[in-house]
Structures are given as C-alpha cells and as structure tokens.
Amino acid sequence: MALRLSAPFLTSRFTPSQALAPRRRTRARSFSPSADARAACFKRPYTSVLIIPTGVGAAVGGFAGDALPVARAVAGVADCVISHPNVLNAAMLYWPMPNTLYVEGYALDRFAEGSWALQPVHQNKIKTWFDPRCGKSTGSVGNSDSLLRAVDALVKHSDVNAVAVVARFPDDDPEDSDCYREGKGVDLLAGVEAIISHLVVKEFKIPSAHAPAVLPPPLSPLVCPRSAAEEIGHTFLPCVLAGLSNAPQYVMRSGTLDHGCIVAGDVDSVILPKDSCGGDGTLAFARAARKDKPLIITVQENETVLDDTPDKFGIEVLNVRNYWEAIGVIAAHKAGVNPHALRRRGIDHLKSPQRSYSAYSASPKPSARPPVHDKVQRQQLVRQI
C-alpha cells in the first residue's frame, strides 16, 4: 500500500542543486473543488450540503467536533461540500478542507431559498470582537444592540469582511456540565451561540461565527471523546478563525450573478438527520423545482431530540441507516448510478416505477436467506438428481 503524504510533509528529498535551478512562478488560486473535478473540465462539480442542527443533542455532531469525520469523509467523495460551524467547529482540532465551504446557518437557509449565493474567496480579512458579558445559557442575548454596534464599527472602520465574536458566558450548573462532558444531553450554549451569529449575518450579510468563553472546568477522568475537544480549548476561536479565513462571501441575488458564484440549483445532494427535516433550509431544498431538486439523504442513526421526520412535511428522501451508507449513496449518485442497483436484488427493485431511489423509506430490506419458494425448488431438484 502506498502512503500518500499530505502537506506540510515533503514528498521528496531536497538537494543543493535544486536551490540553483530556476523556480517556476506559481499563481495564487481561489477556491476550487477537488482535483478530480478540475480534471473533468466538461462536468460541473458535484456539490453536497451537510446539515446537523445546533443544540438538538445530535448523536453525531451534538458535541465538540464529533461530526468532523463525517465532513472529511463526505469531502473525499463530493467535489464541493457546503456545511456550517456546528459541523466544522472543533476547538483546536480543525483545519480547513480545501473543497469545503464554511457557511453560517442563517446564510445557509437563505442560500437554500435561492435569495443568496455563495462567492468563494481567496481569503477574508477577519476581526474579532470580545464581549465580557453577552450570553445566557437560557438561549437569549442580553445586549444585542451593543453587539451590533461593535460589529458595525469593525465593518466601517476596519474594512473587514468576516467577524468572529467571543462572548463570556455564565458558568453552567456543574451537574448539567458534567452530563455534557460525559457525552450525554444537549449542549447548553448552542442555542444562544446560533442567535449571536444569526444576528450578525442577518444585519451585515458577511461571514460570522461565535466562540463561547467559559471558565475551564476541573479535570475529570470521565470525559467522553465526543466532548473532549473542549477540554483543550475553552473557546472555539482557533477553529472559528480557520473557518472564517476562507468562508465564502454572501451575494444577494438581485439579478444575474457574476461567474463563479454557487447557487442553490448547483446542489446535488443534502445529508441530514432523519428527525431534523423541519428547518428552513431543508424545506427549501425539498420544495425546489424538479430540475433543481437535490437528492435528500436522511440518516437514521443520527438521532436528535427533534421529531421532524420527512413524512410530516411530505418530503421525498432516501433514508439510510448511517453515514457509511450515506457516503456510498453520494458516490453512486455522483457516478450516475441508482444506489439500489448496488444492493442484493436491487435490479428487481428497480423494475417497479413506483419505487424510485429518491422516495422515502423505499430501500428494500436486505435478507440473509433466499425466498422460501426458491429453497423448496432447490430441495426438489436435489432429490431428482
């Protein structure tokens, strides 16, 4: 097996003669999808949107960076991945993926509705605003006017196009905090974090994300790996800055767009938990015109405290058991292959026109045993022989 080294490791040994050789001047490039997408110049990039709602106790993505393996795996299959801070933030453990766009949740909803487009950038100029007393764990923002005035000053006087907000939060109840650290319950700060970033993005229409500042909790041997990232970084500022550094700018769709913008019609698939289908963005994708409607994949294993299942909203989805299957479906969809064709007796399943692979709960359940009539026929044949 060949080992592929990624930056910053050198793939060849440097020799003194190389220092004397003329160097080719390289040109800086803006965001582009994967290398495979660039090679296939006659195809547009395959784009996936990965959604895991904030503050709903998601089994995957409800803690600190525990959805990053999913995001990286999806980014290895899709040419372009669009996701939001709840998926991509992970304290000190996150570095940007070159084919992934870091989009705040409010902006992602407007993008799905078609009112905003995403303009990839080479880099953003970021400023950070520290608020010593902003949030409350009850999910409210006490001094939102002060927040907006501060961001307005940054935008006007510092010429920034992205803002990171760090707010000091009151200390949580030790019992609730311990529950979260053990990998149980709901993130108590997630609701107000979303409100803060939504306020900034809605008002100024620039990339923004929030990093909570809390007192370091006492060391505990019972910390769950899903929430361990917060034990080494007590704000999420490092990953917020990393995400905002290349976050796409938000472009209002008032007419024709400049070449290079990504619009909702470019999205090929959307992946989200099965019981979290009631969000504005999800409903917008599901209700798009038929020619622009993406394949919506719901993951049964990623349970949340919500109960917004597809059938309650009349949404056509492909339900899978876990993210393993979801990534396989994306690979098949990208290749133009009906995912059911990859399963046992999948061809028989495809004969029924009423069961398209985009229908909810349409996937046939695998059976470890052959049908009874086939088994009886085999036994009779053996007796005759």
What labels would you give this structure?
DUF3326; 14 helices; single chain; 385 residues; alpha/beta; 6-stranded parallel sheet; 13 strands
Q: What class do helices, strands and sheet pairing give?
A: alpha/beta
Shape: globular
Low-confidence segments: 1-29, 134-139, 353-373, 380-385
Alpha-carbon distance between the two ends: 48 Å
On the 0-100 scale, what is the average pLDDT? 77
**Beta-strand proportion:** 5-15%
Please summarize the sheet with the most strands: 6 strands, parallel
The number of helices is: 14
The count of strands amounts to: 13
Question: Could you give the order of the helices and strands?
Answer: HHEHEHEHEEEEHEHHEHEEHEHEHHH
Question: How would you characterize this protein structure?
Answer:
With 385 residues, this protein is α/β, with parallel strands linked by helices. It contains 14 helices and 13 strands. The chain has helices at 16-20, 35-39, 68-77, 85-88, 105-113, 144-158, 174-181, 190-204, 237-245, 280-286, 310-313, 323-334, 346-350, 372-384; strands at residues 47-50, 80-83, 100-102, 116-119, 126-131, 135-136, 140-141, 162-168, 208-213, 249-252, 269-273, 295-299, 318-320. Helix 3 (68-77) links the parallel strand 1 (47-50) and strand 2 (80-83). The protein starts with 15 loop residues before the first helix and ends with a helix. The relative contact order is 0.14. The model is unreliable at 1-29, 134-139, 353-373 and 380-385 (pLDDT under 50).
